[in-house]
């Protein structure tokens, strides 16, 4: 229901967060129909040509002063829009990465019927670095 950009907007005192759903176009509109829990975020569900066009059209339709981009991809290099965009990012501290490592190990273990798919492989090193 939220991501790095949403957290940054709240943390740094944004005057408001615009609900982008009424402005959604094409595949973005379809994503909202499928994922009803999304509201104050603009999902980027892929970067194919049509998805990028739909994302651009949606961004340009939203009445806002700034778009915070929380996706790891540098969206500003992919999309030229009439809205200023600012990238935000995050990192996990040591305790969080260890917890995530354990959660993912348990998940993968469950999916594989108790058999770890990559013995000796550190999920942490592949996901975080």
Question: Could you walk me through the main structural features you see in this protein, from its secondary elements to its overall organization?
Answer:
With 129 residues, this protein is mainly α. It has helices spanning 4-11, 26-34, 49-61, 75-78, 94-111, 123-128, and strands at residues 67-69, 85-87. The longest helix has 18 residues, at 94-111.
Q: Name the average pLDDT.
A: 82
Across the major sheet, the strand order is 1-2
Distance between the termini: 25 Å
What is the overall silhouette?
globular
Approximate helicity band: 40-55%
Helix and strand string, N-terminal first? Answer: HHHEHEHH
Rg calculated over all Cα atoms: 18 Å
Number of strands: 2
Low-confidence stretches: 117-129
Q: Main beta sheet: strand number and arrangement?
A: 2 strands, parallel
Q: How many distinct helices? A: 6
Relative strand content: under 5%
Structural class: mainly alpha
Give the SSE map.
Elements lengths: L3 H8 L14 H9 L14 H13 L5 E3 L5 H4 L6 E3 L6 H18 L11 H6 L1
Parallel strand pairs: 1-2
Keywords:
6 helices, globular, 5% strand, 129 residues, 45% helix, mainly alpha, two-stranded parallel ribbon
Q: Concise description?
A:
With 129 residues, the protein is mainly alpha-helical.
